[in-house]
């Protein structure tokens, strides 16, 4: 299947290549795909560019770690106290579908125009799916299983460690996967908008300097890196659940 | 009053109280966190600004036209993708992976083609909206119950009757839910684009206030945008639920953000 998928992409690129060479598409706006792909290759062996990738990934992991820890703790609390859950789960769900990213000027004002603001914004956004999925995962654990633990006189900790956690883990992992995707999206988007940090900054600079080949090459690399990232998380999820 | 509302109102009071207290305490600069009362007071100033109507109009125009174009592209593509098992299995992963890319990075390419005016924002809104709409449409077409199709055919339904009475009612709910998701991401995309390159629009105005250090106005404007987006979202999901008795599962909603 992947061979056909790659063939679809290659055919598309070849059509664009022909269109650009015959000037059906203005070559000033779109570089030849062959050139853009070659540029991707040179960028990937360029230490400076790899440094930018490292910055973006660093911000992504920082934001994700924050969102994961806070989100799982809050999700646990919302599950533990029924009235807290009833009162605030709908609020978290509403925030989840609201345009949090648009609040970024507030983060700039409070934290400054730097990586900290980007990481904080990404974490605030990604904490929401983590909370929701953790709460739902724990709520879905059946009463019977918890009663078995109680009748075996397990301590609260063993009950949590050996019954609750294994039963809830798969759904929590789904939440974490969504959180990680969101963090990456917010980090790259904010780097582009603010022109600071890693890959997003590179896209912004390439466009301001009218370096079309670099622009398309870096956008292409972001697509590939995001896809690889999501693929890796999906693999990890499958490994953990086996 | 029940416990749930006591907790909610209590949390809101604590939040606003901490905000007001922290801002008035002198511990933080006024240009970082203006008091809540001042921000709420500025809402009227922001709304009565001479440019406000123009900004709202520009942003709404970008979002509405963007979603319309996104739907015109996304729905047929999704229907095509969902029309056969093979196409669906072939294209779904590609759409899924590309859909999870921060689409705002395509904005500079759109600026090359469409310029720095509203057109480039319409473009980024359309691209962002097209993905959830296409994904939902494809999934909906895939999941039309084959028994219903067979039953209609054996009753002698023509091709157009098949579309009219079997496919359309079956996919309407999920497709509308996709459109709602698309509208949400289009709002984010268009306004984010405005904060980067624009000379009109609510996103542009927020950044203007920011760069002129009119921080209370900036907070007030963002509050208006946030509440407005939430109301549009709520209103639409209510309408869709009424029209189709369909409720999008939250799990499936994680299509794309910016």
TrEMBL record, chain A:
Domain of life of the organism encoding this protein: Bacteria
Domain ABC transmembrane type-1: 53-234
Keyword Signal: no
Keywords: Cell membrane, Membrane, Transmembrane, Transmembrane helix, Transport
Matching SUPFAM superfamilies: MetI-like
Pfam families tied to this protein: BPD_transp_1
Membrane topology summary: Multi-pass membrane protein
GO BP annotations listed: transmembrane transport
InterPro entries hit by this protein: MetI-like (IPR000515), MetI-like_sf (IPR035906)
Localization in the cell: Cell membrane
GO CC terms of this entry: plasma membrane
Residues that span the membrane, as ranges: 49-79, 91-111, 117-141, 162-195, 215-233
Family under the similarity heading: Belongs to the binding-protein-dependent transport system permease family.
The protein's name: NitT/TauT family transport system permease protein
TrEMBL record, chain B:
InterPro entries, per the entry: MetI-like, MetI-like_sf
Pfam families from the UniProt entry: BPD_transp_1
Annotated localization: Cell membrane
Membrane-related topology note: Multi-pass membrane protein
PROSITE patterns for this protein: ABC_TM1
One BP term from GO: transmembrane transport
Family, as annotated: Belongs to the binding-protein-dependent transport system permease family.
Protein name: NitT/TauT family transport system permease protein
Organism for this UniProt entry: Blastococcus saxobsidens
């Amino acid at each position: 299947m992947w061979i056909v998928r790659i063939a679809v992409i290659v055919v598309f690129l070849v059509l664009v290549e022909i269109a650009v060479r015959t000037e059906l598409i203005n070559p000033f706006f779109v570089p030849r795909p062959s050139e853009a792909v070659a540029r991707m290759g040179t960028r990937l062996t360029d230490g400076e560019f790899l440094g930018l990738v490292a910055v973006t990934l660093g911000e992504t992991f920082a934001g994700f770690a924050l969102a994961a820890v806070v989100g799982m703790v809050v999700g646990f609390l919302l599950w533990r106290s029924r009235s807290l859950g009833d009162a605030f789960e709908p609020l978290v769900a509403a925030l989840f579908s609201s345009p949090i990213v648009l609040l970024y000027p507030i983060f700039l004002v409070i934290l400054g125009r730097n990586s900290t603001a980007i990481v904080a914004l990404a974490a605030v956004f990604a904490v929401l799916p983590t909370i929701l999925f953790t709460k739902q995962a724990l709520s879905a654990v059946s009463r019977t299983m918890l009663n078995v633990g109680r009748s075996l006189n397990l301590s609260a900790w063993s009950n949590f460690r050996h019954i609750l956690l294994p039963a809830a883990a798969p759904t929590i992992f789904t939440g974490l996967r969504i959180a990680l995707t969101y963090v990456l999206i917010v980090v790259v988007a904010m780097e582009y908008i603010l022109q600071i940090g890693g890959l997003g900054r590179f896209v912004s600079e390439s466009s301001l300097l009218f370096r079309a080949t670099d622009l398309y090459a870096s956008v292409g690399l972001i697509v590939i890196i995001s896809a690889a990232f999501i693929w890796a998380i999906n693999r990890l999820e499958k490994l953990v659940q086996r | 009053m029940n416990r749930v509302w006591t907790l909610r109102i209590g949390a809101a009071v604590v939040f606003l109280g901490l905000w007001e207290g922290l801002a008035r305490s002198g511990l933080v600069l006024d240009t970082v966190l203006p008091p809540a009362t001042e921000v709420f007071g500025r809402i009227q100033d922001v709304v009565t600004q001479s440019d406000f109507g123009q900004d709202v109009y520009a942003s709404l125009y970008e979002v509405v036209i963007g979603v319309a174009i996104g739907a015109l592209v996304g729905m047929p593509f999704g229907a095509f993708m969902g029309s056969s098992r093979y196409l669906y299995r072939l294209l779904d992963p590609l759409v899924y992976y590309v859909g999870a890319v921060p689409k705002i990075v395509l904005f500079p390419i759109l600026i090359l083609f469409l310029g720095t005016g509203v057109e480039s924002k319409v473009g980024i809104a359309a691209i962002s909206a097209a993905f959830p709409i296409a994904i939902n449409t494809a999934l909906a077409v895939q999941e039309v119950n084959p028994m219903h199709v067979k039953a209609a055919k054996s009753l002698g339904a023509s091709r157009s009757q098949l579309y009219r009475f079997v496919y359309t009612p079956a996919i309407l709910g999920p497709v509308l839910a996709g459109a709602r998701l698309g509208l949400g991401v289009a709002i984010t995309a268009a306004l984010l684009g405005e904060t980067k390159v624009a000379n009109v629009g609510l996103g542009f105005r927020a950044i203007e206030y920011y760069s002129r250090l009119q921080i209370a106005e900036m907070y007030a404007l963002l509050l208006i945008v946030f509440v407005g987006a939430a109301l549009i979202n709520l209103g639409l999901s209510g309408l869709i639920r009424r029209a189709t008795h369909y409720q999008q599962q939250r799990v499936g909603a994680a299509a794309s953000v910016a």
